[in-house]
Amino acid sequence: MAVVTKEYRAEARFQRVSPQKARLVLDLIKGRGVQEALETAAFTKKRIAPVIHKLLVSAVDNAKYVSGERGDDVDVDNLYVKQAIANEGPRMKRIRPAPMGRAYRYQRRLTHIILSVAERATSESLVTRVEDPKAAAKPTKNAKTAKTAKPAKKASSSKVTKKATTVKKVSKKA
Predict the structure, then answer these.
(1) Count of domains forming the chain
(2) Are 48 and 15 in contact (CB under 8 A)?
(3) pLDDT by residue (tens digit) across 37-95?
(4) pLDDT digit string (tens) for 91-117?
(5) Edge-to-edge strands of the sheet including 79-97?
(6) CA triple 46-47-51, angle to 5 deg
(7) Is residue 173 one of the residues assigned to a domain?
(8) What CATH code is carried by the domain that includes residue 25?
(9) Does residue 86 sit within a domain?
(10) What are residue 156's phi and psi, to 5 degrees?
């Protein structure tokens, strides 16, 4: 039986920041607990950080609301940022004046940010597995043969001959 994890997501589309700059902040909060991620986003000095903070709060509120509607029990303290993606949105083409009456084109990039939070799997379960100490103590036949097997001899080309070298000591004459 497969374990189903419940994800709750929030999106902010058409944000006026490049995806590369948004990923700088998203990489800071990816995989962290929600409370730690909120603190990180609140104190990050980037222009997109307040938007990501607001988006994270929205994802947590979505988790509370959807779990209440379904009748699920979601522990908000056990939520973590499972996925944080900054995709590229449409680009706005703009023109900048250039010397001698010319014009240079440039592009303003937009970003679609997707945040997904999920509940961490708890290690507490009704069934506790205990290993049998007798089974762990018995070595298998493969383990015995692996210990007693001798390593294969190396090829003859790996023989190294040492040449005797003489060192002459030179004394300084004053």
Answers:
(1) 1
(2) yes
(3) 999 999 999 999 999 999 999 999 999 999 999 988 889 999 999 999 999 999 999 99
(4) 999 999 999 999 999 999 999 999 999
(5) 7-15, 103-119, 79-97
(6) 105
(7) no
(8) 3.90.470.10
(9) yes
(10) -65, -20
User: Would 58 be classed as within a structural domain?
Assistant: yes
* 157 has a pLDDT exceeding 90: no
Q: Is residue 146 part of a domain?
A: no
> Under a CB-based contact definition with an 8 Å cutoff, are residues 75 and 34 in contact?
no
| Model confidence at 161: pLDDT above 60 | no
d(CA 119, CA 117): 7
The owner of tokens 């004394």 is: 171
Range of the domain at 34: 7-119
Please, what is the angle between helix 34-42 and helix 49-70, to 10°? 150
Q: For the whole model, what pTM was predicted?
A: 0.67
Distance CA 118, CA 124 (A): 17
